[in-house]
């Protein structure tokens, strides 16, 4: 039996809304009907709303399983290694697995699609590779076209993760940088990919211009479409090329974003050359946690050989990369 309020039909809609908003609606049972009354299932303390409270037999609403791990039939000893979450870019899930789980990847993908109705495809991530930092993806289930539309802080981006780098886990970092930008700044993103930093910056702050460079022609094609999609053609210029060369042709800069975490310091000299006094650089780097201090010394030494004085204003640990390594952002001021 389920506790219900017996409510005249004409009051049904407003009472149901009020109960839902106040947390008293029982979401696990269907609403019933008794002649010209609705039987609205309730939870919690007795309610003094002027309607009769009755116990009735109402049908349960079938609950859909939302944890993909509950649908799997794999050896018990592997269950602990299953990831509790996975990245989703638009409607494409990117799955990272321990080697021991790879033989079960198709079954895992089926379970993910069964528990997430918004997924169109699931791909196995075999790592970010090469100069263009593109993921090696193997389609496990769904549509083989992995291009989809991803939304982040009000910016909508077309992304094909099999052709260009994108990491949805950096969304908060992109917003952090956007919030540091002052009106009228001239900014360069030396490794812009499909353009998430420039787009989030222009959506939430008012720089006068952002120059967005990338070596990967496919990433630049997507970035150009993303700039148009967000109607930011007058504030962002997409430039295809090597950042070392392309940055030379830019005007003086107030801020430079350097998100090439396995080797960004190799480009620091070129960024410093263009940075105005007082300007900021956000330098991303993957490091052994024990090497943090020595890397900071290295940054200061690169700056001094470039003839610039730099202060490290802040160090953010953004995410774990391996048991001993993390991805950091160094906020530098010239
Ligand atoms: C880690 S991804 C970052 C992309 C983007 N900032 C983001 O957050 O999604 C690094 C990018 O740098 C680009 N890249 C690598 N070497 C480059 C170079 N010498 N000049 C310009 N871009 C380069 C790659 O193609 C890749 O898109």
Question: How is this structure best described in words?
Answer:
With 334 residues, the protein is an alpha/beta fold. It has 3 domains: 2-56, Alpha-Beta Plaits (2-Layer Sandwich), CATH 3.30.70; 68-146, Met-10+ protein-like domains (GMP Synthetase, Chain A, domain 3), CATH 3.30.300; 156-333, Vaccinia Virus protein VP39 (Rossmann fold, 3-Layer(aba) Sandwich), CATH 3.40.50. It is built from 9 helices and 17 strands. The strands form 4 sheets. The protein has a 7-stranded mixed β-sheet, sandwiched between helices. Strands 2-3-1-4 form a 4-stranded antiparallel β-sheet. It has a 4-stranded mixed β-sheet with strand order 5-6-7-8. S-adenosylmethionine is lined by residues 131-133, 164-167, 170, 191-193, 196-197, 213-216, 219, 242-243, 259-260. The site of S-adenosylmethionine has 22 residues, from helix 5 and strand 12.
Short descriptors:
334 residues; 3 domains; alpha/beta; 7-stranded mixed sheet; GMP Synthetase, Chain A, domain 3; binds S-adenosylmethionine; 26% helix; Rossmann fold; Alpha-Beta Plaits; single chain; 4-stranded antiparallel sheet
Name the CATH homologous superfamily of the largest domain: Vaccinia Virus protein VP39
CATH topology of the largest domain: Rossmann fold
Count, helices: 9
Largest sheet: 7 strands, mixed
Helix content: 25-40%
Shape: elongated
DSSP strand content:
25-35%
CATH class placement of the largest domain? Alpha Beta
What is the strand tally?
17
Distance between the ends: 71 Å
Q: What's the SSE pattern?
A: EHEEEHEEHEEEEHEHEHEHEHEHEE
The ligands found in this model are: S-adenosylmethionine
Q: What's the gyration radius in Å?
A: 26 Å
Mean pLDDT value? 94
**In total, how many domains does the architecture comprise?**
3
Task: Supply the helix-strand structural class.
Answer: alpha/beta
Strand order of the largest sheet: 13-12-11-14-15-17-16
CATH architecture of the largest domain: 3-Layer(aba) Sandwich
